[in-house]
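Example record

The entry below shows one chain as it appears in the dataset: sequence first, then structure tokens.
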Amino acid sequence: MTALVLQARLDSSRLPNKSLLPLGGRPLILRVMEALSFINTDTRILACPEDSYSAFAQLAKEAGFTILTGPKEDVLTRYCIAIRHSGADRIIRATGDNPFVFVDAAMALDQEAKALGADYAAYSGLPYGAGVESISSSALLQAEQEAKEMAEREHVCPYLYKNPGLFLLHRPLAQTKWQAPGLRITVDTREDYERAELLYMHLLSLPAEERYKGVNIINEG
């Protein structure tokens, strides 16, 4: 069983309340969930801190996501709460500042990771903000027990890729059609947000099932 787990929080130092900023007339976090809904998984979970729950709960319901809460800074534990709740043996990890994830690349990565039995998988060479990570639940649960540094817990996966002797890592270059490492499509600053608004409006001219394919986003971006 695979669960897509989206981490998000309401506060942001560089772009306050960015999760609720309008993108195409609706909150950014809803647009992120809409995009991720095109990834084929067994269940979808929004994992947020307690202080973000009231702002996100109705949006998660609208998008068909289960919402769970956990520690604000210990995001690794938030993911493990989602694992224990869902019973998933594999997690696709996504973050709330990326409304233009390459859905086709995400599904290809997860298939590769499963075929290899990889504990951790991520493509390199994608635009910044286009990718996800595919992670075995057992690896995350082990990291929850063993990771001691705050950065390992706040950023979820560093303990895994800092310990290649403990975990099977798969970090290949993405297919050529998805490569555009100089393109930035995350939303972290006001400039990013303004760019995202333009990109989203361009993508609306495409059929819904085509909007989040990597080549189309690169072309519009």
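Notes for this example: DSSP finds nine helices and nine strands in the chain. Residues 2-220 form a domain with the Spore Coat Polysaccharide Biosynthesis Protein SpsA; Chain A fold (CATH 3.90.550.10).
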